[in-house]
Each structure stands twice: as C-alpha cells, then as structure tokens.
Amino acid sequence: MKDGLRIPLMLTPALGLVVLLFGGGLLVGFGQSLGYFPAIGLRDITLRYYVSVFTDKNFLQSLWLTFRIAAETTVLSSVLAVALTLVLRQKFTGSRFVTFLFQVPLPVPHLVAASGIVLLVTQSGLIARVLAVLGLINVPADFPALVFDRAGVTIVLTFLWKEVPFIGLVVLAILQSVGPQYEELARTLGANARQRFFSV
C-alpha cells in the first residue's frame, strides 16, 4: 500500500461516521424545514415556512441583533486582544502573574460567565451597590439598566470577557515565536510605532 493512501484509509471509518451522523442530521433537518416530515404526515415540499420566518418582524429583529453583536464583539475582541498582547509581550515586574490573570476566563463556561456578568451589572448587582455606598449614585436603582436592554450590553461584555483572552493568547504565541529582533531592527532604521505595528 502506498504511503499516500495509508493515512486517508485509516481516517475513513472515523470521518465516515462523522459525515453520516452530522451530514445525515443536517439533511433530515433541511428536509423537515421544507415540510417533508413523514412521521407526522407531512410529505409536500414547500417554502412557506421559510417565507413565514423571513417575513416575521420579531425574527428579523433577532437576526439583526445577532449579527450586530457578533460584529461588535469580533471587532472589539480583536482590538483589545492585540493591544493587551503588545503589553504582555514586554517583560516587566509581575508580567507572569498578569499573564496568568489574563488566562483565567479561558476555562470558565459561557453560562457561568454570563451569570457572573449579570450579578455584577444589574441594578441590584455588586457594581450598583458599591457606587451607591460611595455616594456616586443615590440608590442602586439609579444604575443604568444594562441587563435585558435592546443594545445587548451584557451579552457583549460576556463575549469580550471570554474571547479577548483566547485571541490574545493566540496572538501572543505568534509574537513570541517571531521574537523582537525584527521590531528592534525596524526601530533602528527609523520606523515609527505605527509603521512597526502594521508592517513588521
């Protein structure tokens, strides 16, 4: 047997099972979305379910909110992660401890993170109570309503808390593998911070 065929053949059983389970599930789900569900007596192929969904105002609002939050969290996570990575790659007192703190959110499940954010930023949460004790607001209820709001602030905060460390560690590993010599060379040749960031 040729070496080029050995690995694909060894992977075939596992890949076949994955394709069968997931591909079959997707195919069945797609058929049901078109109205083909013999188990309950539906056999006519139709697009009326898609038309009903995509003309529903509530669905379109939810779809827009989903795309908006995804775009916001992606951009903000990337910017914050790169900025923090550029700081963490520098050697300073306590840098290892700061890097450890940076990694803390990684093993925390999203559900736990969401619960923690809610406990922090609700009008009866920790931040509101601390601000009231400090006299910055009169009562905790004066704290802005950030939970269940139309802007999805707590959703964005939860994703940022989870995704910034993930992206940051990937970028940090890449920067550390490259090393600082290219950046130092560019600085020696007169490149400013912006040129070093975008070109080096």
Overview of the structural elements:
- This protein has helices at residues 3-33, 48-54, 57-88, 95-103, 110-121, 126-133, 153-178, 181-188, 193-199.
- It is mostly helical.
- It has 2 domains: 1-55, no CATH class; 56-199, Orthogonal Bundle (MetI-like fold), CATH 1.10.3720.10.
- The two termini are 46 Å apart.
- The model has no long low-confidence stretch (mean pLDDT 85).
What name does the CATH topology of the largest domain carry?
MetI-like fold
* Average of pLDDT: 85
Radius of gyration: 25 Å
Strand tally is: 0
Tell me, briefly, the overall form.
flat
Number of domains: 2
Low-confidence stretches: none
Number of helices: 9
Helix content: over 70%
Overall SS class: mainly alpha
Major sheet description: none
CATH architecture of the largest domain: Orthogonal Bundle
| CA distance, first residue to last residue | 46 Å
Class of the largest domain, according to the CATH hierarchy?
Mainly Alpha
Short characterization:
It is built from 9 helices and no strands.
Which helices and strands occur, and which strands form pairs?
Blueprint: H1 3-33, H2 48-54, H3 57-88, H4 95-103, H5 110-121, H6 126-133, H7 153-178, H8 181-188, H9 193-199
Question: What descriptive keywords fit this protein?
Answer:
200 residues, 9 helices, MetI-like fold, 2 domains
